[in-house]
Structures are given as C-alpha cells and as structure tokens.
Write a structure and sequence with these properties.
By secondary structure, this protein is an all-alpha fold. It is 60% helix and 0% strand. It is globular.
Length: 295
C-alpha cells in the first residue's frame, strides 16, 4: 500500500520506472526528458503557490458566506452550506482518487480541486465551529498559510537548511501570517477569530496551533523532498500541473495521509535517492520516504 502523498507517489513511481527502463509503464505519456522540454522546479512552485492562493480565496469567501447563513454558530449549517460542502467533498475525493491512478495534468482540473479544497475546509470550519468563534477555521487557515510559507522558504536560500532549522522556521512564518490575518480582522471590527471580542481562546488552542504548524511544515517538507526526486527523474513539462496539484493537495494530506502514516517510511528516517544536494531540504537524518513504494 502506498504511503504519504498519494498523488506524488504515483508521479514518482511512474517516472522512476521510466528512468530505469526503456519500456513505457502503464501510466500513459511518461517519458524521460532532459533539457528544454523537462519539467522545471520553478514552474511547479509558481503553480503550486497559485493553487494554494486560490484555495485560500475560495475558502475565505465560502466561510464568510456560510457564516452569514448560520445565525447561531452552535447550529449545524443550513441546506445551502451543506450542498456546497458535499459538492466540494465529492470533487476533492474524485480528483484525489483519480490522481492516484493517472496524473491530473489539466490546469482546469487543478483549479477545480483548489477551489473545492477551499470550499470543503470552509464548510468543515463552519459545521464544526461549535460556538468557538472560528477557531477551527483558523486551524485550516493556518495549515494553508504554513503551506505557502513552505513554498516561499523552499525557493529562498534558507530552503537548503537542515530540517531541524527549516521546519520550525516555516512553522513560525505560518503562525506569524495567521496572527497578522486575525489582527487585521480584529482591527476591521470582526467579532470572531483568535483576537475577536467574542472569542475566548483556551491556552491549549495556542499549543495546538503550534503543534499543527510544525506538523504541516514537516508534511510539506516531505512532499517537496519527494518532488525533488520526481524532478531529478526527468519528467516532461506536460506534467507541471500534475506536480503542482500533488503538492497543493498537502492541506488535505495533513489530515488524511500523514495522520494515517505513523508507521510509514516517511517518518522513519529513510532518505531519498537520486536528488541533487543543492535542492536538499531534508536534514542528514532524512525523515522522508523512498518515493512511496508499496509495502
């Protein structure tokens, strides 16, 4: 059974088979490319950031709309909000399952996933708010902002730092961004959020946010390390959106893939092979998988 990011695992497994054999594997269109037609890291990073930004925008708009429809935050959302949430859930599951078998290389499909991911997280944030003043929505927002921080850090000179430095730094940037968003909302007169007038944040919530930020930063580190292996195998540029979508699916993966992978080799210290030292975002102890092979 494949572990870790299922979409990246499919891409890496397929491309690695191509690199080792002249025989084309089952996944269609996979070839080993070098030079101008090869997939570039910057292309993937740019599209991933765009998809994560689209998720945040869709999620923020949906959360505001659904919150307006819910008079009491302790109530279950109304019919309209539930229809949006269920439709988003169906779209996310469909694309994730499809992506585990065939690369989702279409830009429109990637955008649909990004929007659906935002709608789903917003619906969950409203449905399970339970009168907390938007705390669950902030948990999801923190995941997305930490993901963006991971992408920004990966493109900076700090991206080559060992994991013991990069992961806490990424988490700190994500938490700082979350605090700034909530501070801006409070200054704008919002009565919900971490600093809202009607919100009393228990002490354990702050600790939970820190732990989740570290977990998210680590999860994206593993995914980006897996992306490094994929890029080193020489995939075609036609799979730019497939790779970007695989990384942008990280916010869902934090709660689905990673929490089911405690016994995965992603967490046991096995290092990657076939990647360049300049792109190493892992510490010397690893903490990443060998590409998601089957058990």
């Amino acid at each position: 059974m494949a572990r870790g990011n299922r979409l990246l695992n499919r891409l890496v497994t397929t491309q690695r088979a191509v690199s080792r054999s002249a025989r084309v594997p089952h996944a269609p269109g996979a070839v080993h490319v070098e030079g101008e037609g090869a997939l570039a890291a910057d292309q993937v990073f740019d599209r991933t950031i765009a998809l994560l930004g689209l998720t945040i925008a869709a999620g923020a708009a949906a959360w505001w709309y659904m919150s307006e429809l819910t008079a009491d935050t302790t109530d279950w959302p109304g019919r309209e909000a539930n229809l949006i949430g269920l439709a988003a859930f169906a779209a996310v599951v469909t694309l994730l399952v499809y992506g585990t078998f065939r690369p989702v290389a279409n830009a429109a499909a990637a955008a649909v996933y990004a929007v659906a991911q935002g709608l789903l997280l917003a619906w969950l944030g409203v449905a399970f708010d339970l009168g907390s003043g938007g705390l669950l929505a902030n948990v999801f927002l923190g995941t997305l902002l930490t993901g963006l921080a991971a992408m920004a850090l990966r493109r900076s000179p700090l991206g080559a730092r060992p994991g013991l430095v990069a992961v806490p730094l990424c988490a700190a940037v994500g938490l700082a961004a979350l605090a700034l968003v909530n501070a801006a909302a409070a200054l704008a007169g919002a009565d919900r959020g971490l600093f809202g007038e009607d919100t009393v944040v228990p002490w354990w919530v702050w600790y939970a946010l820190v732990v989740l930020a570290l977990w998210t930063a680590y999860s994206f580190r593993v995914d980006l390390r897996l992306l490094d292996e994929y890029l080193a195998a020489g995939p075609s540029a036609r799979y730019t959106w497939a790779a970007a979508l695989a990384v942008a699916a990280g916010p869902i993966g934090v709660y689905v893939w990673r929490l089911s992978d405690f016994r995965s080799r992603d967490l046991t210290g096995t290092t990657y092979s076939g990647t360049s030292g300049g792109d190493d975002w892992a510490d010397s102890g690893g903490g990443a998988s060998d590409g998601g092979s089957s058990n």
